[in-house]
Structure formats: structure tokens, C-alpha cells
Amino acid sequence: xxxxxxxxxxxxxxxxxxxxxxxxxxxxxxxxxxxxxxxxxxxxxxxxxxxxxxxxxxxxxxxxxxxxxxxxxxxxxxxxxxxxxxxxxxxxxxxxxxxxxxxxxxxxxxxxxxxxxxxxxxxxxxxxxxxxxxxxxxxxxxxxxxxxxxxxxxxxxxxxxxxxxxxxxxxxxxxxxxxxxxxxxxxxxxxxxxxxxxxxxxxxxxxxxxxxxxxxxxxxxxxxxxxxxxxxxxxxxxxxxxxxxxxxxxxxxxxxxxxxxxxxxxxxxxxxxxxxxxxxxxxxxxxxxxxxxxxxxxxxxxxxxxxxxxxxxxxxxxxxxxxxxxxxxxxxxxxxxxxxxxxxxxxxxxxxxxxxxxxxxxxxxxxxxxxxxxxxxxxxxxxxxxxxxxxxxxxxxxxxxxxxxxxxx
Length: 409
Ligand code: 5CA
Ligand code: ZN
Description:
By secondary structure, the chain is an alpha/beta fold. Helices cover about 45% and strands about 15% of the residues. The strands form five sheets. A five-stranded parallel beta sheet has the order 5-4-3-10-11, sandwiched between helices. The protein has a four-stranded antiparallel beta sheet with strand order 6-7-8-9. The chain has a three-stranded mixed beta sheet with strand order 13-12-14, with helices on one face. Strand 12 (about 280) and strand 13 form a beta hairpin. It starts with 19 loop residues before the first strand and ends with a helix. Bound molecules: 5'-O-(N-(L-cysteinyl)-sulfamoyl)adenosine and zinc ion.
């Protein structure tokens, strides 16, 4: 699959700082020390509806991770998937009486447009579940042949007991896991499973559903977690720097993915840090495609909202916080964008070097974007109150805001 066009990331004077970020597995801050090429896998969308502000907030967090790394003069190797076949997508296609492939293509195309408008850096490998199937099948066969997977009425399940580290990404107790498994795509109540939490690796073909050749597994389609493991291992290998997603992916998705990878390679962990963004709510409830309480990026764009203001609305919240989307959040962002644009529209202004360092320090400290915005606010307020004589300072500020925050002034 193709991704979307990259916006330029201006190089800044000096050098950025190493990123300290919260890792769910150890529930603490870790200072990442990637090699010259930092490796990141971010879980992509299930394309059955348009990109909402929750998705955008999560992708914004991982875009910042990359901007911090780029500022340390590293390259970034970024991989993202598209879950272009899965139960919710097929169910939506049936509900709407449309073809599932057409639905996935249409919503993926819209996601690309939204990401481009928001200046999110594109992955080098953007890989669909369907195109990953030839790589998934041999992994499931290997898991089965090594005893880490078993068959149940034609379906193939992963045995969580095969992984001595199982539980160490989300650190939840058995009761919490069982509850979340039922809520998030698992089937803990299916009779015959070795452990209620065991996730499906390969689902045998069902009537009226698409299916693919699964070699010795029979015709069917892949489970959700093995999809991301196959794509991540194929393009990044074990021990990559960050696996990212919203906090609803910590369990079961990232937990199960870590277990699949451990059973396949004997190595642990798959990712050096498991990083999770908070949930964006609307009207008091998590924004979700299944509930339908959504504000879409594409709708705001159609309404004429500047994508830079949408981005500032996201940046105004710490990525780990759960927060609520409101009209006021957007109005504040629009006002801030106006103030910043006015401040950089003059040829000179207050010195900007310290500001660049403040933005760098804020982001390196667990992606504290609100602190970075506050620093730019202070510079803009000084510019408007007293101006300054530093030639080119506004240019330095716009380049820093562009490079580090993805906002074009
Ligand atoms: N395709 C899988 C990942 S492999 C999936 O979870 N797709 S998704 O479309 O449901 O979500 C895409 C990303 O947006 C995930 O990282 C998810 O955690 C995040 N996300 C979904 N809803 C919200 C929300 N309300 N707030 C913040 N992030 C969200
Ligand atoms: Zn995933």
C-alpha cells in the first residue's frame, strides 16, 4: 500500500535532546537510546469510518516522537499497518450494504488525506493486513508446529501459556484481562479454549466472508494481533524502539503481539518501549466508531477549519491524558494560531534561541506539548507587547514550530 506525501521537516540550529517517554510495560519513564536509525511501529486504523479526533490525537503523539528523533539527527524507520480485513469492517460493510474492499479503500484514502493535511510524517512502509497474509501464514504454522498454537474447530488459537512473559506489557490481573478481552475483539467464553484469553491467530473461512489460502491452516483470514507482529517483524525486526497506539491497545493487542513475537523468536521484548496515548472523548464518552460519537478531521476540513488549528488543538493536551473534545478546544486553537501567525509575520522580534531550546526540552520530557505551546505563547506575547530587534527571529520560530510540532505558520 502507498502512504501519503511527506511534508518537509526544516533542520534547526544545534541538536535536539534524547527522548524520555513513558513505557507502559515498566510503568515508568525510559530514556530511549535508538541507533542512527530509530525504529517505530504505530498501529494503524481499521478503515471502516473516517479519521476522528481520537485517532488524530494518537497519531499526533507518535509524529512528535519522530520529530524529536529527527531533531537529534537520527533517521527514522517508521512502519504502520492498515487493518483492512477484520470483523468490524466486515460488519459495517454488511450493515451499509456495500462491498468491504471498497469501504476499506475509501476510508484509507480519506485517512491519507487527513494525515497529509495535518502534516503527519508518513511511514516508509504502510502495509495492509490483506497484503501481509502471505507472511502471516508461515508464522502461524510455526507457532502451531512449536506447540504455541492449537486448533479448535478449524480455527487456530495462540496459547498464552506459551509465553513466560505473558502479562508484562499491560500488567493487568486475570479478571481485568478477561473483561477487556471480551470488550476488545476476543472470545473468552468460547468453549474448548485452553485459556479463555487465548486469541485467534487464523480464523477458518466463514460463509459469506472473504478468505485466503492459508496453506496447512486451510482457507481463512488472519487474527488481529498476528497481523501487526508479522508486519513489524518483517520491516523492523525484533527489539525496535517504540510500539505505539492508543491506551485501548495495551491489552489485548500489544500484550498478545509481544507474546506472539516472544514465542516466535525466543526474544523479549518486541519493542523497547510500549507507548500509549490517552483517549479522546466526546460528550463524556470515548470517541469511537462503534458508538458513533465522533468529530471527524475531514468534516472540520470541509467546514473550512485550518488543519494547523486542528493540530494545535491536539497539541494543547498531553498525549497521555484522557481529554474531551469541545468547540471551545477548537476555538482556543484557532485563536492561538492567529496570535502565532501575527507574531511571526514581522521581520524581527525577541530572541528565539532560548525558545527553541524550551520546545526541545518540553518535548524530550515525555512529549510535553502543552509546555511547548506555553513557551511559544510567551514569545508571541512578548512580540506583540514590545517586539524585538533580532533579525530573523520570527523565521527561526516558524521553522522550530514546523519541525518540532508539525504546525505550518
Ligand atoms: N487497526 C487497529 C490497530 S492495529 C485499531 O485499533 N484501529 S482503530 O481504527 O480502532 O484505531 C486506530 C488508533 O486510534 C489506535 O491506536 C487506537 O488506540 C486509537 N484510538 C481509537 N479511538 C481513540 C480515541 N477515542 N482517542 C484516542 N485514540 C484513539
Ligand atoms: Zn496493531
